[in-house]
# Entry
Amino acid sequence: QVPVVESGGGAVQAGGSLRLSCTTSGLRFDRIAVGWFRQVPGKEREALAYIQMPARSEYYARSIEGRFTISADEAKNTVYLQMDSLKPEDTAKYSCATSERLGSLYFLDRWQIWGQGTQVTVSN
# Structure
């Protein structure tokens, strides 16, 4: 089984919404951090948000705060990223990653297991 799998990407018009899912397997879900990131070709990967289990503490980058919401469903070992009021500049490949330590929006080397990513395209 692949430890981390993303789904839910697609094409949407500006102002629309998407919900991405990050499903984990073989991990102690109640002891990890799960984060969402995005990357545009030619640019550095950007950390967006992460949730720290078991407390479910949420952390957001300023660039998406107020538009994106992270949540977790322990029964499904899944973390979601609800994205509202999408803008064309949100177009990117979105990936999730897990950390068995404290997560971070600044230190990407904290994140150990990465998914393959899912493409999000927002058009005018």
The longest strand covers residues 92-99. Residues 14 and 87 are 5 Å apart (CA to CA). The radius of gyration is 13 Å. The chain has a mean pLDDT of 96.
